[in-house]
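Marked as duplicate of an earlier ticket. Keeping the data here for the record.
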Amino acid sequence: MSSAPSSDSADPVSITLKAAASHVLESVAGVGATNPVVLIDGRSGSGKTSLARILVSRWPLPGRVQLVALDSLYPGWDGLEDGVQAARELILVPHARGLNGVWARWDWEASAPAETHAVDPSLPLIVEGSGLLTAATARLGEVRVWLESPVRSRMRRALDRDGDTYRPHWKRWAEQEERHLSRDEPTRRATHVFAIP
């Protein structure tokens, strides 16, 4: 459920994501906090995970940055909303309040919660995943990104990445994303919107 970064530096998607990362990192540096929160939303296959990995590798502030992918929180193929709710309650709200957050990874094979992970409120945080930008989460992120990408490109990348594991679930996941787009208007809540080929 997550995009892998392209190994081809001349690839248009890679070039666009690197340019997007530069804009995001400028905004991060301009926040003026030691522990800013970056939220990255977009439909499946749009490049969220790849962008997040670039941000981590080029992070402009001293120390390390924490990265949480909602693929680790969604409780199965019908769990987009529940995963976002868990991220808000267990990660984003505690971080905003200066408290340690603790969340459990969802084991997709066992269909059950697995080991727990902690989030340090003193450290910066990147959270990425479909459905992330809502009225309840947007106010908890200083930098908020929406990635827009054509359905054919997204589907090709997602199925190249996850193949037969994802193929039977593409439509049901897309329907959840459609509800998110209609209900939450994530492009309105984003500080940055990038078109990914």
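See parent ticket for discussion. The domain at 20-70+124-195 is CATH 3.40.50.300 (Rossmann fold).
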